[in-house]
Amino acid sequence: MDLGAAMVDGFVPQSVTVSSRYEGDKVIEDQAWEDASDDVLASAVPWRTFRWYMGQKHYSGTYWSATMQDHVIYESRLELSRLLLADFDPTVRHIVAQPFLLRAEVGGRRARKHIPDYLLLTGSGPVVVDVKPTQHLAKPEVDFTFRWTRYAVEQRGWRYEVWSEPPVVYLENVRFLAGYRRQWLFDPGLLDALKTSGLAGLTIAEAARALPDHAEPMVRAAVLHLLWSGVIKVDLDRPLGTVPISKVAAR
Fold first, then answer.
1. Under the GO molecular function aspect, what terms does this record hold (predicted)?
2. Do residue 121 and residue 176 come from a single domain?
């Protein structure tokens, strides 16, 4: 965000602090935001956890993440969608849900506070993510919160992302592939054999028949696991069964 524009609009946060929770009921409160390292925040547990109650508007739950090898919480189906894509992204190496509480004085108004939805640690640096349906982004309170949060995050050299509904076909493809994310369920020998079987240019159905000495359902499942793992590449913006494999990585 441009500093001059932010100052005119009154979105520059002052005296930003962060509070975070850790295993063993440890809490670090009101630490200077610039002093909180991403390595320490990576070990945080959710600042708040979801609740179930009659008539609630959001569908909350837990998702077993291949990246984390553990469960990660989400507070809505849209948050689950972003979590799926983070788990699928090979550049994401760590995911924290509801990672911390930010407090700041903004625009001369009362102290503000905000809990982002996710902290993603990637190979190119931390990414703070807020998930919100497109229809809510223009609401003044939402816009105000996201503007000052963006400024606070980007002043640290971190990235800030406001994420809304993704392309439907891409999301449904990733959601389907997530069913094959558990690596320990697959025979390493079968996976290695597929990597050297000349799959480029084949559809998934054709690739499932590439090793006639193995049961076709087992081969198909292994192909889908390699797609999830990024070893095999296809165009995920198109229906999965119609596109050829474009690349097979050596790893």
1. endonuclease activity
2. no
